[in-house]
Specification:
Elements (H helix, E strand, L loop, with lengths): L1 H23 L21 H7 L3 H4 L42
Length: 101
């Protein structure tokens, strides 16, 4: 009986820790320039943040820049990737890609 009560207390404690962190935790960002409140500050502008690659342009690479706001109607970020091969680029390889000439 004593072991069951001890186990129950540990289970409650272990379950309450993540819930407390989720409830009382603040918004955190991995990089300071991910926080929209810092976008106008000096350390998020090009000469300073370019060295550490933490500029918003680097952090949100490949995604829509959130500083632009939501996309307008008809604006999407899809790219036309249908490229037709031309005869100039085709090469016959009888050996591996890195093998001799």
């Amino acid at each position: 009986m004593h072991n069951d009560l001890k186990l129950f207390k540990w289970a409650i404690l272990l379950l309450s820790i993540p819930l407390a962190l989720a409830f009382f935790g603040k918004d955190s960002f991995r990089y300071p320039c991910q926080d929209p409140a810092n976008w106008d500050k000096e350390f998020c502008k090009v000469p300073v943040c370019d060295v550490t690659r933490t500029c918003p342009e680097h952090i949100f690479k490949g995604q829509r820049d959130p500083r632009l706001g939501p996309p307008k109607d008809g604006q999407t970020q899809t790219f036309n990737q249908s490229v037709a091969p031309t005869g100039a680029c085709t090469a016959q390889q009888t050996q591996g890609a890195n093998c001799g000439k």
